[in-house]
Design brief:
The chain is of the alpha+beta class. It has one domain. It has two helices and five strands. It has a five-stranded antiparallel sheet. The relative contact order is 0.27.
């Protein structure tokens, strides 16, 4: 019983440290959310991601980086995508659509 409580407590602690989604599951979370948009959805898509492994984060998730990665000059929509696995691995991406 003590081991179970220790595991649950550890999961809650680690999950709280890497919470990036509006809803954060203790074991696994994957969510996509729209941030802004106007007009027709552009045919091009660019993505910029940041990853965190055991609380160490790295990456550039700016809209400018995502647009550059997709060769987008006019932005029509911006979304974000998050993934969290056991609070040990977290990924946050900015996804830009445009022309």
């Amino acid at each position: 019983m003590k081991k179970l409580l220790l595991c649950v407590g550890l999961l809650a602690f680690l999950g709280g440290c890497t919470s990036v989604a509006p809803i954060n599951g203790g074991l696994y979370t994957e969510a996509t959310a729209g941030i802004t948009g106007s007009g027709k959805m552009g045919p091009k898509e660019g993505e910029a991601c940041m990853k965190s492994i055991i609380g160490v984060a790295m990456g550039d998730v700016s809209v400018a980086a995502a647009a550059k990665n997709g060769g987008i000059h006019t932005i029509s929509h911006v979304d974000n995508r998050t993934r969290n696995i056991l609070g040990l691995y977290t990924e946050y991406c900015t996804v830009v659509h445009g022309f």
